[in-house]
Write a structure and sequence with these properties.
This protein is globular. The chain is built from nine helices and five strands. The protein is of the alpha+beta class.
Length: about 180
């Protein structure tokens, strides 16, 4: 099965200029936990999730000058993380608080590849593109429907029969086992 057969094609996207308050209102209104941020051509620039909005509203602990200097010497990754958190805290628009780049897949990618990406990166959704432009979204719930329901995929191009579901379940289970083995190495 391909990503385009599992994706939800009706995606609400936002622009870099969208205010944080409007994003929060859209999340509450549509019961969606994150939106892709796109440019005028539909290219995915990033994603604003519930967590990004929380970072924006919850100021993290501020390190003292000596701690900052010590981190700069010992752990540049921690300093970069603090700087990113501070930027989100101060941000007022999607472009200022988004996580970038957003993880995307091509519409012709196999759903096993999509599932592996979502599982390994521990993300709730992945955006589907065609030629770089946004055409859909695949959420974790889409995989749950695929694995445990007789419901057809959104596109309706393929009926997920019991034999196909069994194969997908085996592939999905093997993918998870392989991923867990590789994490331990």
């Amino acid at each position: 099965m391909l990503a385009k057969e599992l994706m939800e094609p009706n995606v609400i996207s936002i622009r870099k200029e969208t205010p944080a308050q409007e994003i929060a209102n859209l999340m509450l209104e549509h019961h969606i936990s994150g939106f892709p941020v796109v440019d005028r051509l539909g290219n995915v620039l990033g994603v604003v999730s519930e967590l990004d909005l929380m970072y924006k509203e919850i100021k993290g602990d501020e390190p003292g000058i000596w701690e900052t200097l010590l981190w700069g010497i010992l752990d540049t990754q921690k300093v970069q993380g603090r700087m990113a958190a501070a930027k989100k805290y101060m941000g007022r628009t999607a472009g200022e608080i988004m996580t970038s780049p957003a993880l995307t897949v091509d519409e012709m990618d196999n759903v096993n590849k999509v599932g592996r990406l979502m599982f390994e990166e521990r993300i709730k959704r992945v955006f589907v593109t065609r030629g770089g432009s946004l055409v859909g979204v695949i959420s974790r719930s889409a995989f749950i429907r695929l694995l445990f329901s007789d419901e057809k995929p959104k596109q309706g191009k393929k009926t997920v029969g019991s034999a196909k579901k069994a194969d997908d379940k085996l592939n999905w289970g093997a993918m998870i086992r392989d991923s867990m083995k590789n994490k331990g190495k």
